[in-house]
């Protein structure tokens, strides 16, 4: 390791395979973990947070609590596993469950003294949080449709296998959170070996998504590695079109940071997929930037190398030549909402969860309703990349009872929601996210209501337009592929990005910057009106934006003046 590496690199290297001093930190009487150990904590799926609302109310310096993110490959859970999250959120958290844009669940508001109990309760249900955060391969996403055909089953199976294969080998997680007796281990050097990650793990987070052909519900081009299934003529999984080098995060003040879509790399048969994915991860391990974390994502390496050089290096490591990628079918995202056939005798029901926040409010008792349904009917659960939930394996005979609970708890059926609302997503932002510049999740219901009204007034109330909002430019709700991305820039001011496409194959562009929250809809209104008046044959907003020069006509930014 050279002297120039970032501080986080040094912390990882000295962490004794992700142990750091976490055990001692957990045992002391302080409400928080120290600065260096916070970095190690992330690998265990936990973030230390400071609730800015409570801090202000109490006039305190910091109000510490912790966010625990489970690792849930492809978003698939058994009833008991979902119910364990529900219970832990009441016992140790803030009583809400936050479904994430990567098909996991976050528990917020856990205090330090309860972390071990919360993680141990999850472990009792075979749920881990290791690798849900940190410089490692994160939760692997997969199209959540619970189909019974062979190829669909195979992609979920592969997702689970890849997820297990790409976990760290370190026993630190079990020692610290589960097997209490080893917490005070004095082992200087851990005998275990990390064959893929080594002592320094990856330069940065690494993300993989698996898509079904024609259905881009996982936003496959936004991943470091995207795998698009290729079925054979008998509907079994033959292999994957591999795409590489996607990512969303950027920084308003650093022009060298940018969102990027993955490029097609190769066709890989199923039996070689694991080796190819592992070799790509190893390339990022070896060549990713370990000095500058803002430049450490795989997308920058791919951008600088180009896809051909990546392919050459990959083939050199594998020792064989890869087939070129085939044509990628046109894709549309399927949200998988509403009642759907799972098989001849089973159904699944997709429910839209606004911003993924499962909670009880005076109007909608989403949390109670879901608990009642899942408990009574022992449904399976699949979390979706759009922060929604699918209840699976429902028998015809149980549909009536489920409908009764939905009615009693006032949970809206997807059919009653506008397309704009269904496609919308916002990140948590304030008060928990330490990187938030503006509000997102909390103001988003109102923003969506206003867009719905405007679209309705323009006669566009049924349009499929995706709106995604974040409280900073990191891109956690993948705003840069949305039709309309709203990104926090400075206090109460947002940048509006327009022109992504619903299929997730085109990045949007900065349309207006530094727009006040209450001016978001007026800023986009003229463009929407222009679309309504000039679209051809009912074309989609995204197709209209690609066909015409409406963007150039309506865009105005002051970006040159404000950037430093
Ligand atoms: Fe994210 C950091 C929340 C998906 C890009 N993200 C964070 C942190 C942990 C803030 C922090 O570092 O202190 C946020 C915690 C907020 C809170 O209070 O809960 C956070 N990210 C989320 C979630 C919960 C948003 C959501 O609305 O669901 C998503 C959790 C996913 C999961 O289950 O694993 C989430 N984050 C994403 C995505 C979307 C995706 O992966 O498909 C992205 C863009 C894709 C990408 O990675 O390029 C994303 N998050 C970031 C970044 C920018 C990374 C970069 O390349 O620059 C950060 C900041 C960082 O890493 O330095 C970040
Ligand atoms: Fe926080 Fe920014 Fe991610 Fe929103 S986009 S959760 S504000 S890091």
Summarize the structure in words.
The chain has 564 residues and is α+β, with helices and mostly antiparallel strands. It has 4 domains: 1-138, Alpha-Beta Complex (Sulfite Reductase Hemoprotein, domain 2), CATH 3.90.480.20; 140-169 and 202-332, Sulfite Reductase Hemoprotein, domain 1; 338-417, Sulfite Reductase Hemoprotein, domain 2 (Alpha-Beta Complex); 421-561, Sulfite Reductase Hemoprotein, domain 1 (2-Layer Sandwich). 33% of the residues lie in helices and 18% in strands. It is built from 19 helices and 20 strands. The chain has a 5-stranded antiparallel sheet. It has a 5-stranded antiparallel sheet with strand order 3-14-15-12-11. The protein has a 5-stranded mixed sheet with strand order 6-7-8-9-10. Strand 14 (380-383) and strand 15 (389-395) form a beta hairpin. The radius of gyration is 23 Å and the shape is globular. The structure holds siroheme (SRM) and iron/sulfur cluster. The site of iron/sulfur cluster (SF4) has 12 residues, from loops.
């Amino acid at each position: 390791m050279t002297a120039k590496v970032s501080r986080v690199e040094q912390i990882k290297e000295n962490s004794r395979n992700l142990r750091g001093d976490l055990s001692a930190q957990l045992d002391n009487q302080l409400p928080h973990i120290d600065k260096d150990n916070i970095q190690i904590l992330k690998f265990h799926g936990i973030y230390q947070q400071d609730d800015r609302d409570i801090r202000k109310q109490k006039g305190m310096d910091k109000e510490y609590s912790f966010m625990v993110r489970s690792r849930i490959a492809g978003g698939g859970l058994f009833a008991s596993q979902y119910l364990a999250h529900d219970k832990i959120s009441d016992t140790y958290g803030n009583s809400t469950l936050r479904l994430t844009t990567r098909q996991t669940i976050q528990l917020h508001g856990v205090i330090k003294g309860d972390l071990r109990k919360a993680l141990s309760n999850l472990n009792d249900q075979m749920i881990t949080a290791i690798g849900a955060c940190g410089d490692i391969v994160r939760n692997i996403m997969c199209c959540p449709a619970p189909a019974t055909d062979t190829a669909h089953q195979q992609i979920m199976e592969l997702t689970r296998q890849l997820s297990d294969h790409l976990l760290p080998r370190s026993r630190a997680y079990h020692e610290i959170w589960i097997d209490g007796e080893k917490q005070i281990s004095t082992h200087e050097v851990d005998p275990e070996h990390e064959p893929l990650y080594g002592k320094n793990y990856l330069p940065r987070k690494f993300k993989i998504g698996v898509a079904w052909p024609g259905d881009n519900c996982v936003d496959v081009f936004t991943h470091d590695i995207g795998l698009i299934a290729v079925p054979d003529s008998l509907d079994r999984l033959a292999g994957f079109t591999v795409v590489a080098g996607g990512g969303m995060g950027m920084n308003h003040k650093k022009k060298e940071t940018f969102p990027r879509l993955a490029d097609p790399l190769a066709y890989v048969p199923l039996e070689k997929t694991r080796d190819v994915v592992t070799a790509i991860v190893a390339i990022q391990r070896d060549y990713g930037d370990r000095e500058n974390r803002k430049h450490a994502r795989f997308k920058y390496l791919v951008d600088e190398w180009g896809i051909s050089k990546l392919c050459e290096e990959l083939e050199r490591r594998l020792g064989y030549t890869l087939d070129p990628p085939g044509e990628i079918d046109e894709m549309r995202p399927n949200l998988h909402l509403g009642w759907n056939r799972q098989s001849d005798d089973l159904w699944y029901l997709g429910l839209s969860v606004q911003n993924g926040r499962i909670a009880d409010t005076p109007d909608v008792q989403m949390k109670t309703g879901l608990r009642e349904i899942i408990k009574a009917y022992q449904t399976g659960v699949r979390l979706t990349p759009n922060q929604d939930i699918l209840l699976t394996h429902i028998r015809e005979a149980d549909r009536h009872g489920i409908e009764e609970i939905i009615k009693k708890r006032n949970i809206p059926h997807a059919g009653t929601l506008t397309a704009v609302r269904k496609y919308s997503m916002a990140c948590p932002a304030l008060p928990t996210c330490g990187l938030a510049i503006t509000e997102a999740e909390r103001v988003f219901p109102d923003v969506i209501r206003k867009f719905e009204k405007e679209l309705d007034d323009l006669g566009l109330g049924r349009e499929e337009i995706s709106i995604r909002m974040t409280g900073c430019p990191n891109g956690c709700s993948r705003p840069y592929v949305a039709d309309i991305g709203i990104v926090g820039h400075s206090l109460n001011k947002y940048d509006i990005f327009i022109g992504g496409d619903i299929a997730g194959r085109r990045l949007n562009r900065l349309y207006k910057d530094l727009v006040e929250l209450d001016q978001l809809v007026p800023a986009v209104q003229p463009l929407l009106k222009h679309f309504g008046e000039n679209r051809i044959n009912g074309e989609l907003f995204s197709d209209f934006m690609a066909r015409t020069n409406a963007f150039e006509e309506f865009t105005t930014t002051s970006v040159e003046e404000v950037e430093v």
